[in-house]
Specification:
Helix content: 25-40%
Order of helices and strands: HEEEEEEHEHHEHEEHEH
Strand order of the largest sheet: 1-4-7-5-8-9-10-11
Shape: globular
Distance between the termini: 57 Å
Structural class: alpha/beta
Strand content: 15-25%
Length: 303
């Protein structure tokens, strides 16, 4: 009797272990830096904020991040096409919305055969005196993430020339600065930093704070030229984070003859991720982005 029970327990442990292994293979966390991130004296993966009672389904917001890391989501091997994307959640740089604008997006990309990396970048602190510099740590982390993916492309079976970024709200701000900058925003320190930090394509979804309030010109941190990567932008006309930022970004891409698309929905507001919005068709934006990716050959199988 005892032997029978032991056999049953053993079988259950084997099955559970196999399930855990599969889960770990499909989603894994990796620290961006072996030691402290640039300028940091602590290492914290952050703290979840209380969930909002009026939000259904709820979203997970992580704040006080000083140790940035990425979470990898792999597509099924038979659909994997070699393209990859670094996902930058929103949160006003105060927190990262890691599911609604992170893992949910990653799983959609996986269905397209794209390997996805959700970046939990560093967030601002109350002690930060210059909020105009709030972008710096997230952009440093984004550049490092692009370099990390490119450096590990052979290991993960990825095309080093098909690495994109997608940013939501504040993450869209970081993505816009990253794609519009050829220079590194942190001191290069190891072999990973020898890889290019410039993404090959970009998707800006309701990006926040792209323009200066007084002139509506692009913020000086965004530098677009003819070498800027092809970009698609999504916004809503009624977004409090004005769509004029996306228009200004698109206009500069047009002036520099950079391939681009801009889609502005009449309604939808801000911060929806891929979730439906009552009275709006803004949740169809993934179809627009998929068409754009497909037309650019970014969803084809690697040779």
């Amino acid at each position: 009797m005892m032997i029978g029970r032991l056999l049953v327990v053993g079988l259950l442990l084997i099955v559970a272990g196999a399930g855990s292994a599969r889960s770990d293979d499909r989603s894994q966390f990796v620290d961006l830096w072996e030691g402290n991130a640039p300028g940091e004296s602590t290492r914290s993966y952050g703290t979840p904020l209380p969930q909002r009672p009026d939000e259904n389904p709820p979203a997970t917001r992580i704040t006080a991040i000083t140790a940035p890391r990425i979470e990898r989501f792999d597509p099924d091997p038979e659909t994997k096409n070699g393209a990859s994307v670094v996902i930058l959640p929103g949160g006003g740089y105060r927190y990262c919305v890691v599911d609604k604008e992170g893992s949910e997006i990653a799983k959609w990309f996986n269905k397209l055969g794209v390997t996805a990396f959700v970046l939990r970048y560093r967030t601002i602190r109350e002690s930060d005196k210059d909020r105009k510099e709030a972008w710096r740590r997230p952009v440093q982390d984004t550049q490092r993430a692009v370099r990390w993916v490119r450096s590990n492309s052979e290991k993960f079976g990825l095309d080093p020339n098909r690495i994109g970024v997608i940013g939501f709200s504040a993450g869209g701000n970081a993505a816009a600065i990253t794609v519009g900058s050829q220079a590194s925003h942190y001191p290069e320190s190891d072999e990973i930093d020898q890889a290019s930090c410039v993404p090959d394509f970009a998707m800006l979804i309701y990006p926040w704070n792209l323009t200066q309030n007084e002139t509506l010109e692009l913020i000086p941190e965004i530098e677009i030229d003819s070498q800027t990567a092809p970009t698609v932008l999504i916004h809503a006309h009624d977004d409090h984070s004005t769509s004029l930022g996306s228009i200004a970004f698109y206009a500069q891409l047009k002036r520099n003859d950079v391939p681009a698309e801009l889609h502005i929905y009449e309604t939808g507001g801000h911060g929806y991720g891929m979730r439906p919005v009552a009275g709006s068709v803004v949740a169809t934006w993934p179809d627009r982005v998929e068409d754009w990716l497909r037309n650019r050959g970014l969803l084809t199988q690697s040779p």
